[in-house]
Amino acid sequence: MSGAGQGSSASPDSARSAGPAPGPGDLLDFVRRAAADRELISSLPLDPEGRTWLRLDGPGGSEAWLIGWPPGTGTGWHDHAESYGAFLTATGELTENALAVRLPTEGWTTLELAEGVDRQRRLPAGKGRAFGQQHVHEVYNESAEQHAVSVHAYYPPLPHLRRYSRTGPILRLEHVERPEDWQ
């Protein structure tokens, strides 16, 4: 992740729960509540050049982020390793391209994808989704003029992100980011 802002902020579930681990539905509920918190959303500093973010206290020990997306910015292809999660657009609109395929977890650097595995979703304000482990996707703000803001939550907290490049049907593992890379 690259951006100008980091830190922590209050969230709808700022106290960490000692109860059971949150499931994908719990994370989706959390990001919905956080995205509806106008004060929280407006607390994110927006940068016209790069993404910004604030770390939030997620439910049940999850990792959560409030992210600002300037026009034309995106994540590139990546997955969240063993973490599952949810995200929701609070303002603006985001687009998600995803692969409907389970990738091998180790032992490869280049794969040729079969036809028909691509999925695209437009996520205007108030729309989001939950996803499972090793979900490969890219998220971006296609707007030429409007910032987008979104809320993301992951459980367990992200051990790492795998970054990919894609040329047609060829997906290539490029590098692995560790938490210290985006703290």
CATH C-level name: Mainly Beta
Mean pLDDT: 90
User: Spans with pLDDT under 50 lasting ≥5 residues?
Assistant: 1-17
Q: What is the total number of structural domains? A: 1
Helix content: under 10%
Going by CATH, the architecture would be: Sandwich
Task: Please provide a written account of the structure.
The model is unreliable at about 1-15 (pLDDT under 50). The chain has a single domain, classed as Jelly Rolls (Sandwich), CATH 2.60.120. A six-stranded mixed beta sheet has the order 1-2-3-11-5-9, with helices on one face. A four-stranded antiparallel beta sheet has the order 4-12-13-7, with no helix packed on it. Strands 8-6-10 form a three-stranded antiparallel beta sheet, with no helix packed on it. The relative contact order is 0.25. The chain is mainly beta and about 180 residues long. The protein contains two helices and 13 strands; from the N terminus they run E-H-H-E-E-E-E-E-E-E-E-E-E-E-E. It has helices at about 25-35, 40; strands spanning about 10, 50-55, 65-70, 75-80, 85-90, 95-100, 110, 120-125, 130, 135-140, 150-155, 160-165, 170-175.
Summarize the structure.
It is built from two helices and 13 strands.
